[in-house]
Sequence to fold (135 residues):
Amino acid sequence: MRSLDDIREEYEFLEGDERYRLLIDLGRDLEPMPDALKTDATLVRGCSAAVWIYPTQEGERLHFLADSNAAITKGIVALVLAAVQDRPAAEVAAMDITAALEPFDLRNQLSSNRTQGVPNMIALIRETARRIAAG
Fold:
């Protein structure tokens, strides 16, 4: 997975539809999530499209599998994961993920329907990280 800084650098040079294409490409590059993990328990509430996020732990690091049934939403999920993927749980718990995503200005770049679930994705990731970091 590309780093958030690398993605931001490319994103800043793009406009309009090119930014949509970048998000779609990010979503396509997500590690496949097995259908068996797409359950009610992994479904993120409040998203206009279906979004599933499944946390795994590799030592002290968090690794997330995720998917969506909508291409742009899947790209947004990939963008959120780029901020936290494979980092220590304590670091993710303390991280201001919303601030890390601010340079992408998603609220002004995308419709409110596409971005309404982002706070719920972030909350789920941070809650998982806090729980794991606490042991």
About this structure: The beta strands are 51-58, 61-68. The CA atoms of residues 93 and 127 lie 7 Å apart.
